[in-house]
Amino acid sequence: MRRALEILNSFINYERIGTVPRDLDRFVEFLESLGGPHRKLKRVIHIVGTKGKGSTAYHLSHALRNSGFRVGTFTSPHLVDVRERIMLDMKPIGEEDFERYFFRVYENMRNPRKSYRTYFETLTAMAILYFYESNVDFAVFEAGLGGRLDATNVFPETTVLITRIDYDHTHILGNTLREIAFEKASVIRKNSFVLSMPQVDEAMNTIEEMVRRRNARMKVVAPDRVEEISLMGTHFVYRGVDLRTPAVGRFQAYNATLSLSALETYGIEWGPSIFDGLTIPGRFQVIRRGGKFIVLDVAHNGISLGGVVETVKKVFPGRRYTVVISMVRDKSIEEIPRIFSGWRIIATRSSSPRSLSPEELCGHFSGCTPVDEPMDAMDMALEDESEVILITGSTYLVGDILSALNLSGK
Q1: Which of 62, 84, 100, 348 is the 20 to 30 Å CA partner of 318?
Q2: Which pLDDT score, from 0 to 100, does residue 109 have?
Q3: What is the CATH number for 135?
Q4: Is 273 a domain residue?
Q5: How far is CA 129 from CA 38, 56, 248, in A?
Q6: pLDDT of res. 12
Q7: Which stretch of DSSP H or E encloses residue 106?
């Protein structure tokens, strides 16, 4: 697998440089050279949105698996191992299969050294081919960025799930919620079915306009109420049924409800135990070190970080808190200091080439300590008086810490 990774890592990686390709047609042509597996997959569920796409993909795939179906799941980015992105029945693709499917895709590139194939496109093509040949009952695809030009937007028929839409990647998707929602909603297919979380009016109006344009049908879904949030998970009520997801956070009840609505669309019955055994790496993942709680969460924009801080305070009330944070250059940071008011702030650098330096990030906070190496930053946090340490701001940072601690992202 080493050679496959060496070649894959040599491809253009738009996730790392912070942009997207602008030519989806060439990728579709490439998929046709592989036999058109994107046209042959059945029951494709496409998840778009700003917040909660990955958690929704995990909830949905786990629920489908618990219902007895064979499920392929494609998510991004990964935390520790690239194989996390391509899962069959909630297990990462094996090393032998990863290598085999990589070289099948690679060998179809007419000029491997110059072909317009990217890191994300290659993994997407591998996932589509793998799921098709594994004869999955459902294929769950999380969009990478936006939707309209995303490599996952290649399927002729899909059910679309839309999570919370907010400001993120504005340099690519637009500066207004209308522009961002348009990019997301553009994955809606003619006569398809759309499930959406509640949205602010500007985003919802844009989604509804696209639904009408595509002659699609849409349903807006939300939990009846959220009862309790604890380290044991999130207790909520939907359709009058008491449910619990092991995922921690009020927003996880919305992700879970969106997933249950997708099951209902396919006539699949579910019960209170549908999410039993679910784990979502890097989403309020809690470990203990030196008598302290360390919470790792991949939140990386204002709305997500605000939700995580709210959850930390609910689960660990009245404690002293430290955040070890890293952020990339294309994120809006102006509202972040307010979110962490009263916290000790340690800024560090992740493995992303777009990562702000600790000094640059500290410039946005008062009383912030810059530390160049993530593990040094965590060690510093472990030595102070805080009882709860939050590692957040960047998927790369969470992955770096998990890797350093020899903990899998799974």
Answers
A1: 348
A2: 82
A3: 3.40.1190.10
A4: no
A5: 8, 23, 33
A6: 84
A7: helix 95-107
Question: Do 227 and 310 share a domain, yes or no?
Answer: no
Q: Is residue 382 part of a domain?
A: yes
Flag whether 135 is in a domain: yes
Judgement on whether residues 220 and 140 belong to the same structural domain of the protein: yes
Q: Cα separations (Å) of 74 from 128, 324, 388?
A: 9, 29, 32
Q: Is residue 319 part of a domain?
A: yes
Same domain for 146 and 233, yes or no, is: yes
Strands (E), 278-325: 285-289, 292-296, 321-325
* Structure-token match 């994955």, residue found: 187
Q: Identify residue 45 by its one-letter amino acid code.
A: I
Q: Three-state SS for 367?
A: coil
Please report, for residues 231, 263, 281, 360, the alpha-carbon distance to residue 246 in angstroms, rounded to integers and kept in the order given: 8, 19, 12, 36
Listed in sequence order, the DSSP H helices in 174-327 are 177-185, 201-213, 250-265, 302-315
310: buried, middle or exposed (CB in 10 Å: 19+, 13-18, 0-12)? middle
Q: Are residues 192 and 293 in the same domain?
A: no
What pLDDT does 167 receive? 79
Domain of residue 388, CATH code: 3.90.190.20
User: In the prediction, which pLDDT does 299 show?
Assistant: 94
Residues (pLDDT < 50) of the chain are 410
Describe the strand order of the beta sheet including 91-92 as a list of residue ranges: 91-92, 86-88, 71-74, 138-142, 44-48, 159-162, 193-196, 217-220
pLDDT tens, residue by residue, 4-61: 999 999 988 877 766 666 678 989 999 999 999 999 999 999 999 999 999 999 999 9
Q: Where in the sequence is the domain holding 302, given as residue range(s)? A: 285-404
